[in-house]
Amino acid sequence: MKEVFDNANERMNKTLNALEKEYGTIRAGRANPAVLDKITVDYYGTPTPIPQLASVSVSEARMLVIQPWDNSLLGAVGKAIQASDIGINPQNDGRVIRLTFPPLTEDRRREIVKDIKKYEEEAKVAVRSVRRDCIEKLKAKKKASEITEDDLKSGEERLQQITDKFVKMISDVSAQKEKEIMEI
Length: 184
Hints:
Number of strands: 6
Order of helices and strands: HEEEEHEEHH
Strand content: 5-15%
Structural class: alpha+beta
Number of helices: 4
């Protein structure tokens, strides 16, 4: 039974980590290099994330500076940023690309909070799905007479406790991100 609980913990933790990573890519009005993690540039025929082919630094609170290691990539990096959904026009001075993040409007903040809530709900659904899978494994063990009815009941209760813990952690992470967005 221990392997079922370990599996549940591991999979729920991965869900929480994925949510935190997703929240890191949300543009919150201040410069955050994580917004570039999903943007890829065609580098010798291979789609490569910007952080793997350039130095990305925060020069001011709302400005990112991208300096490709190969200057011939400046145009391609600029085009990839324009084609992405981050909504910022890159400024290319021939050596570096600057991204200036505008301050967030109240409407944009509300849109971001809606996205945060959507990601939160998806993460909670994923955690509950893990719980359901693990309960099915316990029921299969009961059917194969590997565990007793009491073991099944206590296992389901333990899985519910683990699920509740992760749902609360997801809610806390989401509330923190929401607060961060609304305070900027």
